[in-house]
Amino acid sequence: MRETIAFLGAGSMAEAIISGMTANKIVSTQQIIATNRSNQKRLLELEGTYHIKTSLDKKEVIEQSDILILAMKPKDIKVAIAEIKSLLTENKIIVSLLAGISTGFIQQQLATKNPIVRVMPNTSAMIGQSATTITSGKYASAEHVHLIEKLMTSIGTTIVIKEEDMDAFTALAGSGPAFYYYMVEAMEQFVEAKGLDKEIAKPLMVQTIKGAAAMLEASHDSPKVLREKITSPGGTTETGINTLSEHRFQAAIIACLEQATLRSKELRDLFEK
Ligand SMILES: NC(=O)C1=CN([C@@H]2O[C@H](COP(=O)(O)OP(=O)(O)OC[C@H]3O[C@@H](n4cnc5c(N)ncnc54)[C@H](OP(=O)(O)O)[C@@H]3O)[C@@H](O)[C@H]2O)C=CC1
Ligand SMILES: O=C(O)[C@@H]1CCC=N1
């Protein structure tokens, strides 16, 4: 790609995307420039690791960019837009990573006709394994969406969705890795309690998740059928599943996703004021 990409915000998600993009070489490191609110040390760290450009001068960053990625927290969006709106020309594509915040709000705050594309990646972008959803704002053409899709494909799989579904997919895929990590944390507690060798346990746990994910992808069987094929009557799996069921495991997962979805909407209500 020929476009220059600017990150407004240089935190974990910006880094995960920079890492994925630079490893994939979809853009050269010199086509990426990042800025943040004030943390110069962090910018130097990113410069050192990824050999990208950084600057605390927003004017310089914006002038150099064709695609501007908003990567600050939802609570900071209003101030961030106020800082950049007078620096923008309408040919720049704005990409938002922000949970909850709608394209309509960004458009209204900018008061310009810049195309806006909203994406929800996850931190597995770091190794090119994100599951990213994409949706478009009012002035984003199919061509703009296609360009951002191409860019995001460098950090994993991408799917274009309706904006109204963003909250739910933010829960499922944006936050999703954290929910799996939380389960692995519990497994680690078990390993510790049993006094098992962590060096042996970790690769086994990781391969078990990888294998299950690969089965979900490759097999025509539903998750339920896949589970039943492991569950011998009167065996270990059945006992384990019954215990999860007694602890209302599935209800807990559904509640977790419901609440995370709701929080995405709440972030909109809170910070679009
Ligand atoms: N982390 C994740 O897994 C995911 C996060 N997201 C979304 O990505 C966004 C960023 O999250 P995350 O990386 O975790 O957050 P971090 O807190 O790690 O980073 C936030 C960054 O925003 C910068 N910032 C704050 N205000 C401004 C401003 N006015 N102009 C420029 N930069 C500013 C901060 O700079 P400074 O350090 O100088 O204050 C910091 O670099 C959020 O909106 C989140 O919803 C989306 C998907 C997944
Ligand atoms: O927790 C959050 O709000 C962000 C959005 C998805 C993942 N992290």
Automatic annotation (TrEMBL):
One GO biological process term: L-proline biosynthetic process
Record keywords: Amino-acid biosynthesis, Cytoplasm, NADP, Oxidoreductase, Proline biosynthesis
Pfam families: F420_oxidored (PF03807), P5CR_dimer (PF14748)
Predominant place of localization: cytoplasm
Catalyses which reaction(s): L-proline + NADP(+) = (S)-1-pyrroline-5-carboxylate + NADPH + 2 H(+); L-proline + NAD(+) = (S)-1-pyrroline-5-carboxylate + NADH + 2 H(+)
Domain Pyrroline-5-carboxylate reductase catalytic N-terminal stretches: 4-100
UniProt KW NADP keyword: yes
Enzyme Commission number: 1.5.1.2
Pathway(s) the chain acts in: Amino-acid biosynthesis; L-proline biosynthesis; L-proline from L-glutamate 5-semialdehyde: step 1/1
Localisation per UniProt entry: Cytoplasm
GO cellular component: cytoplasm
Domain spans labelled Pyrroline-5-carboxylate reductase dimerisation: 163-267
GO molecular function: pyrroline-5-carboxylate reductase activity
InterPro entries given in the database record: 6-PGluconate_DH-like_C_sf, NAD(P)-bd_dom_sf, P5C_Rdtase_cat_N, P5CR_dimer, Pyrroline-COOH_reductase
Superkingdom of origin: Bacteria
Binding site for NADP(+): L8, G9, A10, G11, S12, M13, A71, M72, K73, P74
Broad enzyme group: oxidoreductase
Family (UniProt): Belongs to the pyrroline-5-carboxylate reductase family.
UniProt function note: Catalyzes the reduction of 1-pyrroline-5-carboxylate (PCA) to L-proline.
Name of the protein described by the UniProt record: Pyrroline-5-carboxylate reductase
